[in-house]
Design goal:
The chain has 355 residues and is α+β, with helices and mostly antiparallel strands. It has helices at residues 2-5, 7-24, 113-118, 123-139, 144-149, 151-165, 185-267, 271-288, 290-293, 306-331, 344-354; strands at 39-42, 46-52, 55-60, 63-66, 72-79, 82-93, 99-110, 171-182.
Length: 355
């Protein structure tokens, strides 16, 4: 119906729609359209587009400028400062079919005043609409979880898409920031349950890891304790064996010295007689202790004959002495001389033995 009414009415409707949007968005400050009085002072960070008889003439630089009255007219005033535009809240559907309400902030700057004046009717409105459509397109490529994780990459993709489209408008998008993301209540409850489940899972995993580390530490401690105990036992056995060996050596040395002293004593005069007497005393003493040490007593047939018992003990000793003397005689080379007759004690012992 608007198309049949004519292009003027259609353009008027678009202007009303744009005016309604601009009434909601914050207005940026500018110096308005000044009247040409011949001498003009352009403020810093502003560019005035001048038309001469309805045609583009030039762009006035900051400072003092001269124009021809009635012929020249300031048609557009562009601010070269960074412009902040609040992007209204919009709905978008994610890849997993979740509807989100999202809004943002857009930061722009006019790079070419000529393109910004003649390239598009309203550059700010055009860039804002482009930011909304690009936001919906980028959100449709991501799932709900990735929207929150890849917020920075989402902002960068929107900036790149806006710059590609707004290059011919003389405007450059510096950055885009998402302010708020509103999730439906039921989806928010599900997300909260998911977060709680994830936290319980991590707590369980951490607890199990702690138990595992504890068991490993206990096992390592027991292993080290057993190793140390075995090493201590080994050292104890080595020390005990060394002590026993040293004791045996000391006892052997003492016994050897005792034997040497005994042999030296026997080699002296009347040594054999003293040895015979000592053997007889030990025999009698041992015989007297038989009935005290055990209930079973083995007695010789002639128990009452003390003389015979003493003679028998001396005979045993004499036999042992002869055997030792024969070994010693074999080891000592024979000497040329008269053999020494046996002693009287040896002859008596032999006679007692033969009897």
């Amino acid at each position: 119906m608007l198309a049949r009414a004519g292009p003027g009415l259609l353009r008027r409707a678009q202007q009303l729609k744009r005016s309604a949007w601009l009434s909601l968005a914050p207005q940026r400050l500018n110096s308005g359209l000044p009247v040409n009085i011949g001498v003009l002072f352009v403020p810093q960070q502003e560019a005035w587009v001048v038309e001469r008889m309805g045609k583009f003439h030039r762009i006035l630089e900051p400072g003092l400028n001269f124009l021809i009255p009635l012929l020249d007219r300031v048609r557009y005033v562009q601010s070269l400062k960074e412009i902040v535009i609040n992007v209204p809240e919009q709905s978008a559907v994610t890849l997993d079919n979740v509807t989100l309400q999202i809004d943002g902030v857009l930061y722009l700057r006019v790079m070419d005043p000529y393109k910004a004046s003649y390239g598009v009717e309203d550059p700010e409105y055009a860039v804002t609409q482009l930011a909304q459509t690009t936001m919906r397109s980028e959100l449709g490529k991501l799932s709900l979880d990735r929207v929150f994780r890849e917020r920075e990459s989402l902002n960068a993709n929107i900036v790149d898409a806006i710059n590609q489209a707004s290059d011919c408008w003389g405007i450059r998008c510096l950055r885009y920031e998402i302010k708020d993301i509103h999730v439906p209540p039921r989806v928010k409850e599900s997300m909260q349950m998911q977060v709680e489940a994830e936290r319980r899972k991590r707590a369980t995993v951490l607890e199990s890891e702690g138990m595992r580390e504890s068991a490993i530490n206990v096992a390592e401690g027991q292993k080290q304790a057993q190793i140390l105990a075995s090493e201590a036992k080994k050292a104890e056995q080595i020390n005990k064996a060394a002590g026993e060996a040293n004791a045996m050596l000391v006892r052997a040395k003492a016994k050897a010295e005792a034997i040497q002293l005994l042999a030296a004593a026997l080699a002296q005069q009347h040594g054999s007689v003293a040895a015979s007497l000592s053997v007889a005393e030990q025999y009698v003493s041992a015989f007297s202790k038989l009935a005290k040490d055990s209930s079973t007593v083995l007695l010789p047939a002639n128990t009452g004959d003390i003389t015979h018992m003493v003679t028998q003990a001396l005979g045993i000793y004499t036999t042992l002495t002869k055997t030792q003397a024969a070994k010693t005689q074999d080891e000592i080379p024979p000497t040329h001389g008269d053999p020494q007759p046996p002693s009287t004690e040896v002859l008596k012992a032999e006679q007692a033995t033969s009897s």
